[in-house]
What does this fold into?
Amino acid sequence: MEKRIRVLVAKPGLDGHDRGAKVVARALRDAGFEVIYTGLRQTPEQIVEAALQEDVNVIALSLLSGAHNHLFPRIAEICRQKDMSDVLIVGGGVIPDADIPGLKAAGIAEVFTPGTTTSAIIEFIKTNVK
It folds into this structure.
C-alpha cells in the first residue's frame, strides 16, 4: 500500500482570511492527500512544530497580508534548523511577481498566485514530494 502524501496547510501571521486555504485544503484532500489545517494566525514556530509533529511531506502556506517576504523565509529557515530539508514548502496568496524569486531563493519550492488552479497545485506537489 502506497503511503499518502501528508500536507500541512497553514495561515502564518495576522492574516485573517482563510477561504482560499480551505479551498486548497479541500482540493488536496479530494485528490487523496492527508491534510492537516492549522487554522488562522499561526507563528512560523507553531507551523514548523505542527509539521514536525504531524510528520508531513509538505507545508502549504497561504498568506494575503503582505508579510510573505518575512514569514515564508522564516518558516523555511526553521525547517532547515530542525533538519526538515525533505519537507516541500509551497506558498500562495496575493504575492507580487517581483517577490517570487526571493522567496524561491529562501527555500520556497513554488509560489502560487491568484488564478492558479487547484489541479496545478496538486500536480506540483505530486511531482516534487521526495
